[in-house]
């Protein structure tokens, strides 16, 4: 039985070429393509894939949010993420968002195929060297807290962060306060600096 794959990315031509390559591989069948953030969930709903393959830069950097949404609405669909650079911090964020497979964009086709097969089987398929022990206790940051700190590190205001993450400004302030407390920062910018130094952003 073929592994049904939906591929999501920003460029139709690239996706079509990618689909052609994967369709030439025994055991894989690309059943759908999505080139916009809004199209991913409907495409997964319509095509019922075994695996969703996402580009890290998909839909303006919303790949992790897409991964979380897909896993929430369609838990039977595994998520694999193609990333520019695979680092422990990137893997941590991807796994926390629900991805089971992470493959670098400079990887080779056999690595991608192995990842898709592993994800289809419900296995975490990542280079073991990139998996860190989970952070425990009060210092662990949620995905939303990391999102807020990442945007803070880029110089965004609370209002801009709220708009980017589709949150109320009060929610952003609460997330910021929680992150500052967990990291022992003096303010939100100091907390962002600490998170960067820890390799979490």
UniProtKB/TrEMBL annotation:
It comes from the Bacteria. This is Response regulator transcription factor. It comes from Streptomyces achmelvichensis.
